[in-house]
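Hey, weird one. I pasted the Ubiquinol-cytochrome c chaperone sequence into the form twice and got a warning about non-standard characters only the second time. First submission, copied straight from the form history:
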Amino acid sequence: MILGLFRRRDPNADIVDRLYAAVAQASRAPALYREGAVPDTVDGRFDLLVIHAFVVLRRLKALPEPGPDLAQDLVDATFKHLDHALRELGVGDVVVPKRMKTLASAFYGRAKAYEDALGGAEPLEDALLRNVYAKAPERAPQAAALAAYLRASVAAFDATGFDPIASATLPFPQPDPFFKGAP
């Protein structure tokens, strides 16, 4: 602990902390759980965190330097917070690395599925129904609404430069209107 007094704090740490907090806050919008019917469980919260982080990371990676560097810092912060959350849930020190490997695989698998779907490889609604709603056919209307929200988020970020993102002013749309009319 005392050695921490002599370490330099990464100058980007505050930026990354604010950015992660903004992503986490966006992923906790009540409408996503109420009207969007995303389960308010550890898995449901993870899925929404992945969706929101994916949108931010996608944009940062497309920007010139230092965008990709900030994207990597955000990934690192996300996994640091996931590690901490597992420990708070009582997962033992011996099991945490195995769970983190599983979470990393799920995170990157979902991000790839969403990127592929945005590129036309499969309907985005199908990827969301599979990942967020466990393929429940009765959740197809919510998956369609979540897909519209995700597309609008991507469009908003595609029109946003580095500075607003680095200052954690994230242009996620309000999710409520997307879920109006979804049963």
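That's the output from the first submission. The warning seems to come from a hidden character in my clipboard, not from the data itself. The two ends are 52 Å apart (CA to CA).
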